[in-house]
Design goal:
Rossmann fold; alpha/beta; four-stranded parallel beta sheet; 11 helices; binds pyridoxal-5'-phosphate; globular; 2 domains
Length: about 325
Amino acid sequence: MDLSKFPKRNYLQGPTPIEAAPAFSRALGGKVNVFIKRDDLLPGCAGGNKTRKLDFCIADAIEKGADTIITCGAVQSNHCRLTLAWAVKEGLDCHLILEERVAGSYKPAGSGNNFLFNILGVKSTKVVPGGSDMLAEMDKVAEQLKTAGKKTYIIPGGASNTIGATGYVACAQEILQQLFEQDLKIDHMVVPSGSAGTHAGIVVGMYGTSAGIPVSGINVSRPKDIQEGIVHKLATETAKHVGMRGDLPASEITCFDNYVGPGYSLPTESMIEAVKLLAQTESILLDPVYSGKAMAGLIDLIRNDHFEPGSNVLFLHTGGSPALYAYLDTFQ
Ligand SMILES: *Cc1c(COP(=O)(O)O)cnc(C)c1O
């Protein structure tokens, strides 16, 4: 799969590190060796996985002559923060629609990503109730801005369309090149699975290059069967977009939904344990909504002997640590 034909803005400045996590692995009994792909260290204000997707999405926006980006997310959305951050750097206007998925969770003076939206100079934010039709809401804002003469471009939630997911096909290729150079064999990969572009892109990249590395997604909101369907649909479309030959079997998509807890963005004991354990063994910060719950999943899978003893397991750290500061009470 030759990705060089797709326009991108070159936001990456080289590969993100793959780090061993020996103290963390020991704290879990030394049954497996955990490695961490540090996409939390990607460029873009405060880092995180959306930079890889936006590299391609914003290139498409600029190619289409846009001067204004509209996107959406939850009230503490890392995707909104990074879309805004890259728009600022590109000299584009950025408007955000925030979905209040947990009633009463939006605080105009809230901390975390919400605080950063203001510092980064967002043009407007509109808060809508949980369950709103976000595409319709973005269309409404786009229509208003078009009447005012703006050339708008809508990036869907999480930048999880085929253009954005291509960033994670590229990430899988990057990982395989690093494993080659570092003479490292990875037996299994674990990724957070939310709006699905990250999970779908990684699977397409791994399957499409016959890497033989199974990928497990840890859900942050939906039940297993629904999420697997969403990931498979996007992976199939992305495989076509990047020119992968053949079909992507549904059996390549595996999700675990046991670590969501009461719902999207709501804290769980296992998330708190995961955030503290990684911080206190490796000095790496996870986040409460995505990477913390995904790591809680990996910890539980290790404890329950899901992996062969001695396996090397690669965890994709997708970032999100600014949201920690909106959850101070959870960690007291
Ligand atoms: C968006 C996000 C994810 C999930 O990625 P998707 O591509 O939406 O599945 C994981 N971690 C963090 C920190 C995120 O912001």
